[in-house]
Design goal:
The chain is of the alpha+beta class. It folds into 2 domains: about 110 residues, DNA methylase specificity domains (Adenine-n6-DNA-methyltransferase TaqI, Chain A, domain 2); about 180 residues, DNA methylase specificity domains (Adenine-n6-DNA-methyltransferase TaqI, Chain A, domain 2). About 30% of the residues lie in helices and about 20% in strands. A hairpin with an 8-residue loop joins strand 5 and strand 6. The radius of gyration is 27 Å and the shape is elongated. The protein starts with a strand and ends in an 8-residue tail after the last helix. About 0% of the residues have low confidence.
Length: about 375
C-alpha cells in the first residue's frame, strides 16, 4: 500500500490544549481529552481487537490513541478517496494473532491497491460516495427521531410505569378526545387476562428434529424495537414437539422473552414453538396489540423481575401478578392503531435506510477494483 504514510499515534508527541478534543481509539470515538495529536483530515485504522481494521474519519484537531493507526496521504492522493478505499479493503483479513488480533504498520504497508492516476477522478469518486453517506446520515437521524417520538408517545399513552405489584396512575397523561370522559382505567392482573405457554429446545443432537414445518423461535429472533417482527428461520417436526419441553403457542399470542433478552416481545399471527427463554401469553378478550404495547411499556418492570445469578429472568408466576390498567376495548383499539401506524412508518424508514446502505455497498464494488480476499 503506497497511498500514504502509516504511523502509530503513540509515536507522535502530544500538544496540551485548554479545550477538549475528540479522542479516537481503534474502534472510533472514545471520548474527549485536553490533548490533541493531529490537526486536519485523516483516516484512522483500528489496530487491535476483534474489530481491528475498522476505519474512522477524523477531522480538525483530535487525539488518536496508540490503538489507532493514523494514515497520512501522499501529495497526489485525495484524503476522502483514501478513506473509502480503506473501507473497501476489508483490512481485518490481514490481522494476525488469535486471542488478541492485531494489525501492524508493516503488514498494512504491504497491501497492494490501485490508485486513479488523476486526483480529479479520486475526488469524483469520493464526492459520489460522500453524497450517499449524507443521505444515509439524514435517513438514520430521521429514523432515530421517529423512534424517540414513539418512545415518548408510549410514555404518554399509558399510565406511568411503577411497581408492578402496586400499580401506578389510573389514567395516562395523553388521552384521545373521545375517551376523556370515560373515567379511570380498570386495574387487572395479567394472569387474569389470558393463558400462558412455556417453551423448550428440542435436542440439537437429533438432526431429524430440525427438518419439520413447525416454526421454532429463539430470543435472538425477536427484535428490540418492534413487536411486529419475528425472524423465523428454524423449523421442527411433530416428533420434536412431542419429545421436548417446547409447546405449540397459539396464533394471536404475545411471545415474551423472559430470559436472555428480557424486555423483548413480539406478536405471532401463526402457531409457533419457542425456546425456554420465553413465557408466552395468549389473551382471552382484550386487544392483542394493545396488550403487547402496554407490556412493552413495562419493560423496566420486567427487568426488575429478573433474578438468578447465571441467567437473569422471570417466571410465569412473576409476570402473571403484573398489575395493568386497562381501558375499554374501543380505547384499546385506538391506542393500538396509533402505535401500529407509527411502527409501520418506522419500518418503512428502516427499509429505506437498508436500501441506501445496500446501494452504497454496490456502488463501492463498482467504483473500486475487486479486492482479493485472503484465504
Amino acid at each position: 500500500m503506497h497511498a500514504g504514510k502509516f504511523v502509530s499515534a503513540s509515536e507522535i508527541s502530544e500538544n496540551k490544549k485548554d479545550d477538549l478534543f475528540p479522542c479516537y481509539g481503534g474502534n472510533g470515538l472514545r471520548g474527549y481529552t485536553k490533548s490533541n495529536t493531529h490537526t486536519g483530515k485523516y483516516s484512522l485504522i483500528g489496530r487491535q481487537g476483534a474489530l481491528c481494521g475498522n476505519i474512522t474519519f477524523a477531522t480538525d484537531k483530535f487525539h488518536a490513541t496508540e490503538h489507532a493507526v493514523v494514515v497520512t496521504p501522499k501529495v497526489d492522493v485525495d484524503t476522502d478517496w483514501l478513506f473509502y478505499m480503506l473501507i473497501n479493503l476489508n483490512l481485518n483479513q490481514y490481522a494476525t494473532g488469535q486471542a488478541q488480533p492485531g494489525l501492524s504498520v508493516e503488514n498494512l504497508e504491504k497491501v497492494d491497491i490501485s490508485i486513479p492516476g488523476k486526483e480529479k477522478e479520486q475526488q469524483k469518486i469520493a464526492t459520489c460516495l460522500s453524497s450517499i453517506d449524507e443521505l444515509i446520515i439524514a435517513q438514520s437521524q430521521k429514523l432515530d427521531t421517529l423512534k424517540v417520538h414513539k418512545k415518548g408517545l408510549m410514555q404518554q399513552l399509558f399510565p406511568a410505569e411503577d411497581d408492578a405489584f402496586t400499580g401506578s396512575a389510573r389514567v395516562p397523561k395523553l388521552r384521545f378526545a373521545e375517551f376523556r370522559d370515560d373515567g379511570e382505567w380498570e386495574e387487572k392482573q395479567l394472569g387474569n387476562l389470558g393463558e400462558f405457554t412455556g417453551g423448550g429446545t428440542p435436542s440439537k443432537a437429533n438432526d431429524s428434529f430440525w427438518k419439520g414445518s413447525i416454526p421454532w423461535v429463539s430470543s435472538s429472533d425477536i427484535f428490540e424495537d418492534s413487536i411486529h417482527q419475528i425472524k423465523i428461520s428454524r423449523f421442527i417436526t411433530e416428533e420434536a414437539l412431542k419429545d421436548s419441553a417446547t409447546k405449540l403457542v397459539p396464533e394471536n399470542s404475545i411471545l415474551i422473552v423472559s430470559r436472555v433478552g428480557v424486555g423483548k416481545l413480539a406478536i405471532t399471527k401463526q402457531p409457533v414453538c419457542t425456546s425456554q427463554d420465553f413465557t408466552n401469553f395468549t389473551p382471552d378478550i382484550d386487544n392483542l396489540m394493545f396488550l403487547a404495547y402496554i407490556l412493552k411499556s413495562h419493560s423496566k418492570t420486567l427487568l426488575k423481575y429478573s433474578q438468578g445469578m447465571a441467567i437473569k429472568g422471570f417466571t410465569k408466576d412473576d409476570i402473571s401478578k403484573l398489575n395493568l390498567f386497562i381501558p375499554h376495548l374501543p380505547e384499546q383499539q385506538k391506542i393500538a392503531d396509533c402505535l401500529s401506524s407509527l411502527d409501520e412508518l418506522i419500518a418503512a424508514q428502516s427499509q429505506k435506510l437498508d436500501a441506501l446502505k445496500t446501494h452504497k455497498k454496490g456502488l463501492m464494488q463498482g467504483l473500486f477494483p475487486g479486492i482479493m480476499e485472503r484465504g
